[in-house]
Design brief:
- α1 links the parallel β2 and β3.
- The protein is globular and about 60 Å long.
- The protein starts with a strand and ends in a 10-residue tail after the last helix.
- By secondary structure, the chain is α/β, with parallel strands linked by helices.
């Protein structure tokens, strides 16, 4: 069987491609397990300073493989229970790693593919691509952190509308609603995402990682508690070599050159 995940290095950026084009890059248990394992390893690989996730063929990802689920011996509930365990592992790894993760949405992103794209830090979307949450139209509940990320991106009312009516969301509509970072011509989503990741790779990962975690957790604490977390992160950043370089470069009126720490 061919590897359902392809990993390629583009300098300091690693591209992870979901490679089941005939299944619209849907996740069966093997694919999502391999995907999660790759993310876990990339998170601690010091050579990697940015990650781009994309799909082979016409789709980004159609989410969970429903054909696979219907053939699971213990039934649908057991199938999705097992699938979600590894899927959630991948989502948590994306949200918790200090490195930027960018979705290159080259085609339709539906169901778990929709939630996966939302879990990424940034999203570059091809102009003919479509987003669709898809879960509720199949009698399922939104998974993969979608109910966490969606209201944070578009607000509760819009998130409920997307959940209830499950209408296809065009690239321009997604941009207007704040669901994606940038819309590009078809065939250019991957290259634009790699360029964005390469730009971020030149910046301080330590600073980015702290900002990412603080923003992700901002809804979970009281104001006073969050201020203390900000102070702790600021202190940690100030003690890091990147801060010395950044502040020195500012005084010397030059661009900083950050290291790999």
């Amino acid at each position: 069987m061919e590897n359902p995940i392809k990993v390629t290095e583009r300098g300091e950026v690693t591209v992870v491609t979901l490679d089941r084009p005939k299944a619209f890059n849907a996740f069966d248990l093997e694919t999502i397990s391999m995907f999660a394992d790759y993310l876990i390893n990339l998170a601690v690989d010091d050579r990697v300073r940015g990650i781009v996730i994309s799909g082979a063929g016409k789709a980004f990802s159609a989410g969970g493989d429903l054909k696979w689920a219907t053939s699971w011996p213990q039934g649908y509930a057991a199938a999705f229970h097992n699938l979600a365990a590894r899927y959630h592992q991948a989502i948590v790894e994306i949200r918790r790693m200090r490195k930027p993760v960018i979705a290159a949405i080259n085609g339709v992103a539906a169901g778990g593919g929709f939630s996966l794209a939302l879990a990424c830090d940034f999203r570059v979307m091809a102009e003919s691509a479509v987003l669709r949450q898809a879960y509720t139209s199949n009698g399922l509940s939104i998974d993969g952190g979608g109910t966490f990320t969606l209201p944070r991106l578009v607000g509760l009312s819009r998130a409920l509308e997307i959940a209830a009516f499950d209408e296809a969301i065009s690239a321009q509509q997604a941009l207007q609603w704040g669901l994606v970072t940038k819309v590009v011509p078809d065939g250019h989503a991957l290259e634009e995402a790699v360029t964005m990741a390469a730009d971020l790779a030149k910046r301080s990962l330590h600073s980015f990682g702290n900002a990412k975690r603080l923003l992700t957790d901002a809804f979970d604490h009281s104001f006073e508690t969050h201020l203390e977390l900000e102070r702790a992160a600021l202190r940690a950043c100030a003690a890091h070599p990147d801060a010395k370089e950044g502040l020195t470069a500012f005084v010397e009126r030059r661009k900083p050159v950050f290291g790999n720490e």
